[in-house]
TrEMBL record:
This is Dimethylargininase. Keywords: Hydrolase. It holds the Pfam family DDAH_eukar. It comes from Limosilactobacillus fermentum. The keyword Cytoplasm does not apply. InterPro entries: DDAH-like.
Amino acid sequence: MLFSNALVRTPGHSVINGIDDYADLGRPDYERALAQHQAYVDLLSDRGVAVTVLDPLEAFPDSCFVEDPAVVATDFAVITNPARASRTPERGFIRLALEHFYSQDHIFEINAPGHLEGGDVMEVDGTYYVGLSARTNREGFEQFKAIAAQFNHPALAVPVHDFLHLKTGTTYLGDGKLLVTGEFVNHPAFANFTQLVVPAEEAYAVNCINTGNGVIMPAGFPVVKQLLEDHGFPVFEAAMSEFEKIDGGLTCLSLRFTAH
């Protein structure tokens, strides 16, 4: 297992009004979104992960995407500062949840003018790659870098131009293997990785979760499924159509960590 715990939040009905800056696929169907979310939770549980399910926050349409308002590690947690003002109040709610797992002196916060979203933070064997995107700025990165340094974790900035977040275009699978697409193919920041290149037409499926007990990937992307299987990964598919409509991927729906 690469992590033992996951925090998720059940979507509220307001999820149909979630932010859509990229997808342009129409509004989610609420009942289908709920069913897909439950199937996602079941997949994690079946892989041996202890899943904590948080109550919906009806006032915050994007609050099911718990990865953005926090970054979690084994030894610390960071409450981020999302770039979109509509998501700022989620910070307090996710902190309450994390206080069950982390001591107060190991929970930190990103403060204005810094902005950071968890979708831009990719951990690779103790090193953090942080996307400088439309949602994460240099000040947010510098604050995060200083926090991570307290626990002897380096942080490296990676400019993001074509994607919402860093992990929209690349995901670390472990064992030196990286799923990449678009601007991150042959990117110098990732020169030392074995790159598994995802074609543009299946770019959505670059955002996967390796549990250490199988990779969970979005359903309906046969090229990526074959690519993962060819590299020895057991694959489990999750329907994600309703979350794709509001710019969400698999990693967005959970905070994954090992309890300490």
